[in-house]
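Appendix B. One record, verbatim.
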Amino acid sequence: MKNICIVTGGGSGMGLATAKLMGRDHYIILVGRTPSKLENALKELQELGIEAECFPCDISSRDSVQNLVSHAESLGKTRAIIHAAGMSPHMGNGEIIFNVNAMGTIYMNEEFAKVMPSGSCILNVSSMSAYMLPQDKVPAEVYQLSISDPCAFQEQMLHIINSLPEGMGPSMAYIYSKNFVVWYSERTACLHGKNGIRILSVSPGTFKTPMGELEGEQAASFALGSALGRLGEPEEIAELMAFIVSEKCSYLTGVDILCDGGTIASMRAKGQ
C-alpha cells in the first residue's frame, strides 16, 4: 500500500512545484478540474521518475470529494494533503469563488480527516488577502457554523456576499473565503489533533504562477511594494509547504504561515 500525497490545484504553479518535492517519497495524486492541464503536469512528474496519477475532481462538490477519498483509500494511506486549489477574483462570480475556496476546504478537510492516519497532515492554502479583512469585519459567528452546520454556513455567507454592492462580490468572496481558510484550519486542528492529524494553513503573497499572472498589475504592485520588493518563485513556497507536511514539523499545527515577501508587513509599516 502506498504513502499518498494529494495535491489539489496540482496542474501548475505552486501545487505542481510542491508535488515535485513530495514525489520523492510519496505517491502523488494530482487533483484539478481540467484533465488536459493535469495530464501535462503528470507528464512532468513522470519525466522526473515520480510515481503519480491525476484524478479530476470538483472540490466544491462533497460527492466528488468523497469519490476522491474512496479512490485514494483503494491505493494506500493518505499521509499528506496540499490543498492548493482555489479561485481568484477574476475567475468567477462571488458564489462560485466562495464555494470553491471555502466549501471546497470544508469538504476536503472533513472527508479526508475521517480516513487519514495518525502522523498525517493537511495543509490548506489561503492567501495574504486573508490579512486584509479588518478584524471587526470578520463574521466569526457565521464561521462557527462551518463546524456544526456547513449548509447553514454556506447559506449565510452567500447572503452576505450577495448583499454587497454590485461589482464587489468576487473580490470580497475571495477575501472572506481566504480569511475563513485561516480560521477554519486553526479550529479544525483542535478537533483532529487528538487523532494525530495536523492541520495548518499557509498564506502566499504574489508568486510567478498562472494565477499570479491572471491577477495582473495590481497583484504585482503589492509584491514590488513588499519588504523584498519582488514576486516569489513557486519553488520558494513549494519548499515551505513540503517542509510543513513532513515529519520534521511533527509538532506544528493550528497556525497560519504568511509567506508574502513581507507585503503585509510593509502595508502595516506604511499605515503606522
